[in-house]
Write a structure and sequence with these properties.
seven-stranded antiparallel sheet; three-stranded antiparallel sheet; 21 strands; alpha+beta; Glucose Permease (Domain IIA); 6 helices
Length: about 350
Amino acid sequence: MNTRNLLVLTACFVLAVQTADAQRRRTTNIPPKLEDLPCIPIDTLDSNDPDTKIILYTNNTFSYYRPEMKYYDELPVYAEHRDTTQIFSYKSIQLADLPDRVDLCLINHAHEFHYPIKGMVRSKYGIRKRRNHNGVDIPLTTGEPIYSTFDGKVRYAKFNSGGYGNLVIVRHKNGLETWYAHLCRLNVKPNDYVKAGEVIGYGGNTGRSTGPHLHFEVRYCDQTFDPEFLFDFPAGVLKNELFALEKSYYNIHSRASELLIEDDEGYDFPETDQNLLLLAEMGDTTASQRLLALAVEREQAAEKARRDAEAAVYHTIVSGDMLGSISRKYGVSIDQICRLNNITRTTTLRLGRRLRVK
């Protein structure tokens, strides 16, 4: 059989399979998946960013096209130590090889930064039960969009069995890498160029996680340091445009394992006094502030209850009293009397009972 006949047979077979699948979907009312629909570019649109075009496809999806950013491929930061299959790519560089200080330009213009997600940090960078927690955890609702913090190039984007779950790693021009873990869905692939504020995935609960949250790390040559040096997560702002990264900031055990350790996470704690106390003992300043706020709220509530009790007006039921006559006598509604005494309009009013009317 010659090559031409083989190609014809192959095409017929593929057509038969697609026809059978389409027939099955029609008979079972199963909607087609996006990935099963023809994905053919049909139009190109401009965007607010002059470096970015938007390509529209026939299956109602789109992608970004950034031809002007291709020159970045020639930059050493994107060409060297680039591994798209492993989470660590600087294995040949040890901590001792790094300079005592690196001066990093984070942004030149405001539009070059975007928060990954806004929210309170419920598990901070540091030691957890003698283990290292190499990032920060921010609670979220599954499906919330996660944004790239700076312009950069995606180095890693897939499921990580070491505990990170669906993980995206973006490398930036200054050498920093930002890590976004536990995503429910990825929106980028390796070697994609992304802009600050571009949705790279959606928050979730994949990997070693006991509740939906974003585990976020910042690394330089695979070495971690506290992301809160750079970001104010509740406010969603960058603290400084320039940052002096001292060697003392690194966690020397940050590359010891590919396993993600997330002990003592507080993002899924119900807000009880006991849990807030535990978080406060762990150094969570937000929990300490919330405890103080609760104490003030409770004191104010007790004072209000005392004033209400002193100002309360009561009526003692006598023969012939009805809710309507009592409400008219005191100038209040029947509903208010019912609410204050936890009764209904049909409750029998027994002689001698005291009803609160105000």
